Every structure is written in structure tokens, then in C-alpha cells.
Amino acid sequence: MAGSRNGGGGGRVRLRRPVEEPLRSVETTIYLAPGAIGRGFGSRLYGELLVALQALPIHAAMGGIALPNPASIALHEHCGFRKVGHFEQVGRKFGSWIDVGYWQRLLRTGE
Q: Residue 58: which domain range?
């Protein structure tokens, strides 16, 4: 799944299965080009992705966010995800330790 505008790259989606079988949950990632941030590409990509996931036997989608990242937090929460975890200083980015938060959206309830 990819989004673009006027032939330029807007963003792309990546799925990763944390558990091999049975496939019941996925970790989602939305990558946006710097010029695409704040222009609705992320919401459109996530909207298409969530529709596609609902057609599969997927119960939950998770997104990890390198913190702080207010734009990514806003995108996930706009798309119905809620914060479920926060790990302190578990990664490195640009030479510094970073926290990582996890947001989750249940796609099927009561099953």
C-alpha cells in the first residue's frame, strides 16, 4: 500500500507479524516523506490499511512510536489506537537513548 500525490512519494505501510501462527495480530508502521507530514497521507494510508485488515482474521493492530513524537501519537489516536505501553530508553536514535510507546487498536471485539 502506498500513497502519492502528483507522482511524488507520500508514504508507505509495512506490516510485521509478531507471532508466526496463527496470524491474529500485526505490528503496523506508516512511513511518510517529510513533505507529506500533516497533509492527510497518514490518515488515508491507515484508513486503507485498517479496512484491509478487517477483511482478515486479525484481532489487533499495534503501532510502536519512538518518543517524543506528537504527530505520530496524534495520527494513531485519530485512527482509533490507544496507548497500551511505554518502554523507557530501549532504543537509540541520532546518538541518544529514546523511549518507545505502543498504541493498539482492537479490530474485533467479543470474538
A: 2-106
Lowest mean pLDDT among 3-7, 74-78, 90-94, 97-101: 3-7
What is the domain count for the chain? 1
Q: 25-32 and 60-67: which strand pairing?
A: parallel
CA 64/CA 55 separation, integer angstroms? 23
Q: What is the domain-level CATH number for residue 84? A: 3.40.630.30
40 in a domain, yes or no? yes
- Residue 6 CB coordination number (10 Å): 5
111 inside domain: no
Residue 4 has pLDDT above 50, yes or no: no
Residue type, 56: L
DSSP secondary structure of 17-55: -SSSSS--EEEEEEEE-GGGTTTTHHHHHHHHHHHHHHT
Establish if 65 belongs to a structural domain. Answer: yes
Say what the pLDDT of residue 14 is: 61
